[in-house]
Amino acid sequence: MFSSLPLNALRSFEAAARLTSFKAAAEELSVTPGAISHQVKVLETRLGTLLFERSAQGVRLTEQGERLYRQTHGALLDISRSLEHFLPGTASQSLTLSTTPGLAAAWLIPRLGDFYRAFEAFNLRIDTGNELVDLLRDSSIDLAIRAVSHTDPKLFNLPLMEERFAVYAAPEVLAAMAVEQLQLIDLRWQVPQGCSISWQLWCEAAGCQDWLERARMREFDDEHFALSAAVAGQGLVLASNVLVADSVQRGELAAFRPDVSLPGPRYMAVCVPGRERQPHMKALLAWLAEVAAATITEAR
Questions:
Q1: For the domain 7-84, what is the CATH code?
Q2: Per-residue pLDDT at 178
Q3: Sign of CA dihedral 225, 230, 234, 235
Q4: Longest dimension (CA), the chain
């Protein structure tokens, strides 16, 4: 049934497509770049179509190549995961989750204790960064949580939480607040296209345009640091209801003008299609959906 499948050619193609380089694919598979090129040509001849566009700058997938890559990568990944069930130890119970440093510090990591109590044999590795991860090319990442303005049709998408941005401060700051001595914590929020978050937009919505002329700005480049500064009483912060949920519940922060907020993106859990049906991924996604729903309830 499978005797005629060009497995070596498919494996060479998948590596070259994922790494966008014949040389890098050769290093990964411990062969020569010429061997990768030969296997790709064998596959192209068999299929009767070009899979790569070749130029002096390197190689780039054609439309047909992109389609075959997604299918091949998913199939090889499924085979690899299936083989893990036969290995000793807990390899099949380990997953790598990628998310932003802010969400990891303020929301995910504080809840992991409950996760491990429910899944004692499960090992969840947290990989943080603000750059988007290409799950179709980077098989080292099993699942990603990102704030997005729209879903990616090439991935499995699980909606988690809708963000809204409002102003928060330590209770003692709000109690002694004087418009003449405003201190605002400014952060360049890294939000997807279609969402705009800034003090100027919030002030316009609240009718407080004069704030920007008289306020002293405290600038930060990381949302976790900005929230820590607000908790320490260093000013008012324009922040996500998701990221401040725990601080509000503990009484460390309180909302100022909760009737005024800016719409933000949606947090989504995303993975390669088909992975959501695997037992450990299914369990992780169900847990994430449960704690996300509880967070939104608390943040209202």
A1: 1.10.10.10
A2: 79
A3: positive
A4: 79
The dihedral over CA atoms of 278, 279, 283, 285, expressed in degrees to the nearest 10, equals 0
Is pTM beyond 0.85? Reply is no
CA distance 227 to 234: 10
Distance between CA atoms of residues 172 and 65, nearest Å = 60
CA gap 243, 245 in Å, rounded: 6
Q: Nearest 5 degrees, angle CA 53-CA 13-CA 16? A: 70
Handedness of CA 126, 127, 131, 137 (dihedral sign): negative
Question: Residue 155: phi, psi to the nearest 5?
Answer: -125, 160
Domain residue extents for the chain: 7-84, 100-300
Q: Domain 100-300, CATH 2.60.120.10 — does that match?
A: no
Residue 270: partners with Cβ closer than 8 Å, 6 or more residues away: 135, 143, 144, 145, 146, 152, 155, 156, 157, 158
pLDDT of residue 91: 47
- What per-residue confidence (pLDDT) applies to 90? 46
Closest C-alpha among 191, 174, 292, 285 to residue 239: 191
Interatomic CA distance for residues 14 and 11, integer angstroms: 5
